[in-house]
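Reopening this ticket.

The earlier resolution said the output was attached, but the attachment link was broken on my side. Pasting everything inline this time so it's all in one place.
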Amino acid sequence: MSIGSGQMLVVYDDPSDQHSFSLDDNSSAEESLDETRLSLESANETIPYIGQRFETHDAAYEFYSEFAKRCGFSIRRHRTEGKEGVGKGLTRRYFVCHRAGNTPVKTTNESKPQRNRKSSRCGCQAYMRISKTTDLGAPEWRVTGFINHHNHELLEPNQVRFLPAYRTISDTDKSRILMFAKTGISVQQMMRLMELEKCVEPGYLPFTEKDVRNLLQSFRKIDPEDEGIDLLRMCRNIKEKDSNFRFDYTLDSNNRLENIAWSYASSIQSYEIFGDAVVFDTTHRLTAFDMPLGLWVGINNYGMPCFFGCVLIREENLSSYSWALKVFLEFMNGKPPQTILTDQNMCLKEAISMEMQTTKHALCIWMIVAKFPSWFNAVLGERYNEWKSEFYRLYNVESIEEFEIGWKEMQNYFGLHSNRHIINLFALRSYWALPYLRNYSFAGMTSAGQSKSINSFIQRFLSAQTRLAQFVEQVAVAVDFKDQAGEQQTMQQNLQNISLKTGAPMESHAATVLTPFAFSKLQEQLVLAAHYASFPMEDSFLVRHHTKLEGGRRVYWIPRDGIISCSCHLFEFSGILCRHALRVLSTGNCFQIPDKYLPLRWRKISTSSSKLLHNAPSDHAERIQLLQSMVSNLISESAKSKERLDLATEQVSILLSRIREQPVSSPAVRDAASIHRNF
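Inline output:
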């Protein structure tokens, strides 16, 4: 502010300091050198002292900042003083502790949401004052005031680095972060990579995950309406390049993008075989655009997650979820999943009952368990882990009666009768507890291993994005990356030497048909089957462990129709035949598992081959399936030695050349081959 020529000007870097903070100086005049001189012999060059000289006020600030960092606090510029008039300029500056002054009073704006953040200011009086002098010829800045007494605790070295003043992202690091964001990796993964690159311990980068998220957020502050237009343009461009790419959207009354969903050709193809059980995860949001995100995910024949589709919705309501489910079914040619797993969401629950009436709706157990610490830690204290173990025991019991009796006993033992979460879980028990779900197909997605795999897969889609329109591309990159990684894992599985453990013909036959992942699950049951005894009954078999005298499972077998079923429902639940049924087949002199109990979803067959089988005549399909089995055996046998592998590579190359010389004469075969190339 201007007061008149030659008068003192006072400017506060933070206007709130003008009323909340005062320094103990009675005069704004410059101190004489006699008043400020300090013996240089007694001065410590790492600690500010009266009379200390600096060429510029910025150099003084940097020195005081480094001193503050060593001591456990940070500083900020407080006040600047100067004189008006030609040649006068700045004459004095004040630097203060970051906790100086009092909480500034904020003016509220009802139209904008207020952030209720606690201020760290507590009236600390620590400061350093520098004054400009030209007594020795060239202008310089000298320390004319210094107080290092704080009214608050100072931070330890491992804590002070988290103060905002010391958290900086260099231009080089900014470029790396933006490059990482475009590849689709998460912020947490970015931090780990940069720690490795800089050879620092975890958590010792000069910035935090929050700083990285804020940086990425700053690049997204653009018009949401323009973002919606760009996103639609991106989808249309992909559709022009790939006619099998599918997307749909809705606009609101103002012609702005409301909801959008999309799926890729490879995803639709995978769903044909692996869409029996689907996870629809709606627990995440694109934070930058405050939009709920829904992902449809499944498990393939090698036990690896596969992507089916994606949806962005503006509002989490019945209308939006119903639209999303309808569009998903349209993408998948009207074929609903047998089972769909979701989080607890009443709107979504109602939408599924309306749009997927033949689909079993279940709740993801890992999404429920993830909430347990916030639900029960404080309530149960030291007994929390004991309760959690009992919960898992009840979750896995075999009968509904045993579950319900055990649940009441658990409530009594832990005193949880009136706990609202326990009451709600029991009310929804038929949606998550295994005794109620074993009649339905889950493809193993309730196991802990599969839940971790699916969660890890989903995280690839949740990394920070620079633009909403690029999210479609980043999802495609993540899907493609997973497909490539999946192909490598598939090859590794196929190259593994499968060791037969029982010597039974059923085992060796299954090994040629099933993927190594599925075969390992069946092999577990085959090994266990040897420990069971089967007893013929009037219309079934009773199968129980050889050490048990009571109980057991009922197995119904009709040999002439090749039909077998067990009361444990493992096959219905996972697609893998149980030990009880395998025992009955073995005692009935059955040397091969009936084809219908080696389902296509677990066979050694790629999605492209399955599409080929679906479109080809039955005899042609059988021959392709036979060839696929022979190729699997070829790989398994060739991998046993270097000599075998060299021979196989050489002979297959020759055979491939000869096959390509043959004409494609049959129309049906031509059509099938064309389909195979397209996928």
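Reporter confirms the inline version is readable. The chain has a mean pLDDT of 80. The chain is about 45% helix and 15% strand.
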